[in-house]
Amino acid sequence: MLLNPSILALLVVSATVLLLIALASIFALRVIRHWDIHSGSELQLQLERRTYLISTLVAYCFLAELVALLLFIYNAEQMSSQFVGAMCATGVLNINAYGWPVLYLKIGLFFAGAAWLTLNRVDNQAFDYPLVRVKYALLLSLLPLVAAEFALLLAFFLNMDPDVITSCCGSLFTPEGKGVAAEISGIAPADALALLGASALLVTGAGLHHLRSGRGALLFAGSNLAALLIALIAIVSCIALYIYEHPHHHCPFCILKGGHGFMGYYLYIPLFLATALALGSGIIAPFRNRPSLAGIIPAVSRRHTLGALASLLIFYLVAGYAILRSNLSMLTVWW
Amino acid sequence: MKTIELHQVCKTFNQYQPNEFHAIRDIDLRIEPRQATVLKGPSGSGKTTLLAMIGCLSRPTSGRITLGGETLSGLPERFMTEVRRRTFGFIFQQFNLIRGLTVSENVMLPAYPLGLPRERLGRKTAELLARFDLAPKAQLKVEFLSGGEAQRTAICRALINDPEILIADEPTANLDTRLSAEFMQLAHGLVAEGRTILMTSHDPEVFDSPMIDRVVAIRDGRLEP
Amino acid sequence: MSSALRKQRYLLDYTLSSLARRPGKNLGLLLVYTLIVFMLASVMLFTHALRSEAVAILQESPEIIVQRLVAGRHDLIPAHYLRKMGHIRGVLERKGRLWGYFFDPAVKANYTLMVPDEAQPAADEIEIGATIAATRGVGLGDIISLRSADNRPFSFRVSGILDADSQLVSADLILLSEATFRDFFAIPEGLYTDLVLRVRNPRELRTIAEKLILLLPDTRPILRDEVLRTYDAIFSWRQGIVFVLMAGAVLAFVIFAWDKASGLSGEERKEIGVLKALGWETADVIRMKFWEGAVVSLLAFLLGYLLAYAHVFYTSAALFEPVLKGWAVLYPEFAPIPYIDLLQIATLFIFTVFPYTVATIIPIWRAAITDPDLVMR
Fold first, then answer.
1. How far apart are the C-alpha atoms of C4 and A275, rounded to whole Å?
2. Which of B105, C12, C22, C47 reaches 20 to 30 Å from C162, CA-CA?
3. What confidence tens digit (pLDDT) does each residue in C336-370 have?
4. Minimal Cα–Cα distance from C42 to chain A, Å?
């Protein structure tokens, strides 16, 4: 299995990112230990210049991880033909205990990376590097996550046994089954839609409140995270059904296929973008009272909030379109 | 208009190493706005090092430099760059034009990081080139310019962001007598517009010129009384 | 357009002119880069095309093939096994097949002889693959004679030349009637090469296979899906092997890129010093260099991929032909069906652009932190 080129590519990216983040962490440690903004010494100048390298390394790693996340899902999709019982990515992720944790960790890293880059950007705009220690401490905390991701990814690909009969979306995402996936699939579409609507109202309200008053960025970030989770639940329990035009097909991956007009991408990309922006806005909020950041954070936060709200709007519109366009009428099935 | 002040400025190269070298020692200096000031001294006297520190190209090892009361010397490099871009225009000894680029492209270089609209930047460039009689050469590659033209291109480039203070390092070192005189005329015109000019020179044509308001002599990293 | 965007455009402009000013240095890099992309892309496209071809062939084949084993070796299967297995739920159709291989000493090649399901040729006629026709130099109506298993000469009139979509199978194929086949290979009535079963619902395949093993213990059922899976695994495994072999080349390329990026000439270093003195920030220089890498990468990737595409699909991978010709004398004129696969492009991207980018980060940074007062020294 390991010799599949796409798997090699994923491992190469993950290992390289681990290496680069480890490198950045070593520099970060030096900065945390020796940073003195008021010093004109050579060491301080060197440290300042190192910050450029760290920013660049992390930004590149983030981009690489983003591509790797897409490749990971796409690869799982394609590998489904190699396992008995797998018909889409769900089946491949189920092949052993590591599949889903890798996916969750990759998504987590995406958000963590986006948040860190926002913090970094804000800090770089202030004249006295006010958050330099905070951001590098946070960077150090990313290192174990990146290492865990590499280890899990390796375990996932090493433990792929083609003789195992895996269960795919058909059995995982059914209301009759057990576990979280089944629970989510079991939620009545009407309830899911109501929940989706409520979360949309909550997050829009929080966003507008933040735009108007400049406060409540954390609330907005939190409600955006909630909106993301609820949207994912709604996709599994309801929106997917309309896209497949099939009242029992709950899979969150099959909607990425060409056969369904790549609908999944139009749903997931704005949704994840919105959450990444909102989290960025949330992570910088606690520092808005630092004197050198007072003029910068509100502007950045505002831009992020506007972007997040616009992305969410696109998501809700696409979801609405998917439901309205569908030939599936659920009235007779559940309501 | 902002005054530049130096308090106890020192610059040490290779600090704490066997080849430690004190280029500038304890300089206190005040440079008045709207004047042409010359730092005079033999080569190796530290005048260029001092000029680089005033122009935010390097930081003093100790001491303080202020511009209009604001301390520059403690700023991180990133913001020194910002200050440099907005406040200073530079004319280097060898002009340091970038070969392979045209006259107008060279003039626009300092403005790129500001992201001005293209038409506005183009208009500004054309005006400057016209003012310094370079309009016909605008699309010529800089390696085909004469010495005087290259000098004037360097001046245009120093002026593109409309700086308050012009910094010139040995501006006449590569020019003959006639062109040196022409440069002094141009410099005089710029001071008359309200700009501050600070230059280094060991050329009597420069520091004995009536167009210079003040001459500061440096030797071995210290001011001469 | 915001000023940040305009700034990027200025930086990109500068990058382009800077690339154009140093054609020698950049052309060398572009050439090596393109070559790396071309090699990897050719391998990927070609192995993938081979796999698709194999999969396409298998699509036509029956869901289950039952072979009889005697002492662990494939043997002829008696026709009464069809009755013995009886009616199994889910099986639409079952029948025996006759096929085999024949070595033709005249051209030193192996043919596949097969009895078609329908439209069997007349007793003394055969239909042959286009490649056989070409190597034996025969056309429609000509006579081919072959010596049978017990050394009797058989003469056949060529009644048709197969030009199927897929050259890969039909190239060495000979179709003949059942009676002639049995006579030629001396296979008595009531024996078949293997049995085939058609099944409608793929979910029932495993159950049916299990029943077959119970009913006919001396046989082995071969599931088409199983074969497809093996093919899938084998082809991506092969590709992986080639990639591992090519890792050396990629590594050499990475070192080359690192060296190119860090080996700045005095003039280039001075240029960066001038830009910084004029008010370019370290991050601006990094971005400018990033654009440079992006332009070179994009160009090399596009060029390399297009060349590989042309190589595989228009010249039928002419560079690989000498290697592949080994596996059969009757090498078919294999014309793969063009396709573009996103996963493949992304993988290729990670094997080429990603290493290049990583290799240049530190050299770019080193160049960007050039002291701005360098120009005054």
1. 24
2. C47
3. 778 888 888 888 999 899 999 999 999 999 999 98
4. 13
Q: What's the number of domains chain A is made of? A: 2
Q: Please determine, for residue A250, whether its predicted confidence score (pLDDT) is greater than 90.
A: no
Q: Which of A132, A167, A202 is the last residue of a domain?
A: A167
Which amino acid belongs to residue C221? P
- Cβ C332 vs Cβ C134: under 8 Å: no
DSSP secondary structure of A182-224:
HHHHHS-HHHHHHHHHHHHHHHHHHHHHHHHHS--HHHHHHHH
Q: Looking at the complex, report in whole angstroms how far the Cα of residue B44 sits from the nearest Cα belonging to chain C.
A: 11
Which of C30-39, C90-99, C161-170, C222-231 comes out lowest in average pLDDT? Answer: C161-170
User: Smallest Cβ distance to A48: which of B62, B74, B76?
Assistant: B76
Q: Are residues A163 and A174 in the same domain?
A: no
C-alpha closest to that of C129 among C148, C89, C155, C102 = C102
- CA dist C38 and C42 (Å) reads 6
| d(C-alpha A217, C-alpha A278), whole Å | 8
The residue among A46, A77, A81, A88 with the most chain C CBs within 10 A of its CB, best to mutate, is A81
CB interface of A with B, residues 1-40, below 8 Å: 37-38, 40
- Identify all chain B residues contacting A129, using CB atoms and an 8 Å cutoff: 76
Please report the pLDDT score of residue C220 as a whole number.
Answer: 86
Task: At B136, list the tokens.
Answer: 């016909």
Q: Is B116 in CB contact (< 8 Å) with chain C?
A: yes
Same domain for A145 and A187?
A: no
* Chain A residues near residue C347 by CB distance under 8 angstroms: 5-6, 9, 71
Contact criterion met (CB < 8 Å) for B96 and C10: no
Closest CA to C235 of C46, C48, C40: C48
Q: Is B12 helix (H, G, I), strand (E, B) or coil?
A: strand
Tokens of residue C129, six digits: 């693959």
Percent of chain C with pLDDT over 90: 20
The phi-psi region of residue B133 (left if phi > 0; otherwise alpha if psi is between -120 and 50; otherwise beta) is left
Architecture of domain C62-222: Beta Barrel (2.40)
Instruction: Check whether residue A26 and residue A146 sit in a common domain.
Output: yes
Do the chains contact at C232 and A5, CB–CB below 8 Å? no
Question: Domain ends where: A117, A152, A167?
Answer: A167
Global pTM reads 0.83
* Interchain contact B61–A (C-beta under 8 A): yes
For the residues A302-330, what does the mean pLDDT come to? 86
Which string of b and e fits A54-73 if b means at least 16 CB within 10 Å? bbbbbbbbbebbbbbbbbbb
Summarize pLDDT for A182-238 with one digit per residue, the tens: 777 777 778 888 888 899 999 999 999 998 888 888 999 999 999 999 998 888 888
pLDDT per residue as tens digits for the range B127-164? 999 999 999 999 999 999 998 899 999 999 999 999 99
pLDDT score recorded for residue C327: 47
Cα distance between residue A320 and residue A243, in whole Å: 11
Per-residue tokens: A12: 């190469």
Is C6–B113 a contact, with Cβ atoms under 8 angstroms apart? no
pLDDT of residue C166: 52
pLDDT for A27-61, tens place per residue? 999 999 999 887 777 788 889 999 999 999 999 99
Min Cα–Cα distance to chain B from A120, Å = 14
Cross-chain residue pair C286–A9, CB shorter than 8 Å: no
The average pLDDT across C314-334 equals: 62
Higher pLDDT, A237 or A141: A141
State percent of chain B over pLDDT 70. 100
Q: B121 near B111, Cβ under 8 Å?
A: yes
CB contacts of B56 in chain A (<8 Å) are none
- What distance in Å separates residue C327's CA from the closest CA in chain B? 56
